[in-house]
Amino acid sequence: MRIALFTETFLPKIDGIVTRLCHTVEHLQRAGDRVLIFAPEGGISEYKGAKIYGIPGYPLPWYPELKMAFPRPSIRRKLEEFQPDLIHVANPAILGLAGLYYGKNMGIPLVASYHTHLPQYLQHYGLGMLEGLLWELLKGAHNQADLNLCTSTAMVKELVAHGIERVDLWQRGVDTEMFNPSLANPMMRARLSGGYPDNPLLIYVGRLGAEKEIERIKPILEAIPNARLALVGDGPHRKALEVHFAGTPTNFIGYLRGKELASAYASADAFIFPSRTETLGLVLLEAMASGCPVVAARSGGIPDIVTDGVNGYLFEPEDENSAITATIRLLQHNQERETLRQNARLEAERWGWAAATAQLRRYYQAVLTSHSTVKAA
User: Fold this and answer.
1) Right CATH number for 2-173+352-376 from 3.40.50.2000, 3.10.20.880, 3.40.1180.10, 3.40.50.620?
2) Does this model's pTM top 0.70?
3) In the CATH hierarchy, which fold is given to the domain comprising 181-349?
4) pLDDT (tens digit per residue) in 219-267
5) Own/partner long-range contacts of 327-334 (Cβ < 8 Å, ≥24 apart)
6) Domain boundaries, the chain
């Protein structure tokens, strides 16, 4: 198959969406497919054999790491040269609208996927009054597609409830070779803890954005004697978080990649994840694959991954004491923590990227078959 992939974000930006798309592109290319990526310009022209057509963009004022890349006529010329069998639009917003438009205009089958729970993000940026309008816009965009994919059952239900049609589940994936308990490292632990490797070490990995509600980790940190917190990642909310955590044993690490990131997960005692806006929470799977026990909010797509008391702990999002109790329990009961580690690893081993991409290819084939049937009729 020849697949044109439109995405609002790609390398060198790092986040869960980019991670999923990178693994997907790699496995599609391995399977013999050819992928052309349309993305905001980022200084790279190829990834794992897939060509990248970079579109000049402008940084979002409140989130400079993200670029708005607006559709332009040259996109059609590139599509005509590439002759895709199918267009896949990830998170249609600005650039993705070009994928939807040209797919319809050129008679190319369309798949869209939903990765970022934008309507809930609005609450955290003072724009909650626009939530209804945004759902209408999302419905209008996604209903252009022949198939809409979500990465958790919770998001499938929510999209259907908001009138989005032809919705199905794209299974989760994680690199269980890269993320492994064997990468626990005393030097990394010392780095994360700011030089206190013998103290309890909590870790958060992900974007430092307001919607992640990272401030809610502070009461947990303060409730555990001598605990240290490592925040791995970066984003527009970092300065506010530095003020919020001032005077606490919190270490802002910045971005880590590859084996350094895998080692960070494996070297910590607990992964704390308070976000209520997750469509999936890829970092949770990475932590679990690394043998790092998870304490996370019972919200969004998270319960698809974490089974409370079996491979991690879930806390009620509105109950601060629930999160504190779960974390203290995790740290105080060594045998229970070891059981959670093992179960978390076993859960992660069920979800390799090869299987997730094989499922995606089956979806692609079904859409192509449906289009052929309609044309023949």
Assistant:
1) 3.40.50.2000
2) yes
3) Rossmann fold (3.40.50)
4) 999 999 999 999 999 999 999 999 999 999 999 999 999 999 999 999 9
5) 327/202, 327/220, 327/223, 327/224, 327/270, 327/272, 327/295, 328/223, 328/224, 330/269, 330/270, 330/293, 330/295, 331/200, 331/224, 331/269, 331/270
6) 2-173+352-376, 181-349
